[in-house]
Design brief:
Mean pLDDT: 92
Number of domains: 1
Order of helices and strands: HHH
Structural class: mainly alpha
Number of strands: 0
Radius of gyration: 20 Å
Shape: flat
Largest sheet: none
Distance between the termini: 47 Å
Helix content: over 70%
């Protein structure tokens, strides 16, 4: 449960902004989206591998400069 302490006289919009920020940090929405549709473990592993290759190429290109 997410709790946002509000000070006396604090703006509601500011409190909502704090709530949204805390909610995003917990990763609830991201998890819901991944659970909405099943992806095979092999597909997940392949996407992770491709991302790692991409990141490695970016870092290698940065070091060559």
């Amino acid at each position: 449960m997410i709790i946002v302490p509000i000070k006396e006289g604090e703006n509601i919009e500011r409190a909502l902004k704090k709530l949204k920020r805390k909610f995003e940090k917990t990763g609830v929405i991201r998890e819901l989206r991944t659970r909405k549709q099943f992806t095979k473990p092999s597909v997940v592993a392949r996407s992770r591998r491709l991302k790692a290759i991409y990141v490695q190429k970016l870092r290698q290109a940065e070091m060559d400069m």
